[in-house]
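Aggregate trends can hide what the representation actually does to any particular protein. In the encoding step, the backbone of a single protein was reduced to a row of integers, each denoting a local shape. The record that follows shows the chain in one-letter code together with its fold in token form.

***
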Amino acid sequence: MSVAWVTEMSPGTEKRRAAATCGSCGEIGIVRVWEDGTIQPVGQSSFCGCSTPRIQLLET
């Protein structure tokens, strides 16, 4: 999967969107990946219903 970086207004806030899955329950969703490695679900406060999701980026 090829994902382009999106530059925000503030320096040091580059991010990209990527597909991801929870290694525990198998839920699939879209996340933001910040340049510092932080992963944040898009459009929701948590990625899935797991108490401790194991988010893994999907790549092709």
Summary: Confidence is low (pLDDT under 50) at residues 1-9. DSSP finds no helices and four strands in the chain. The radius of gyration is 12 Å.
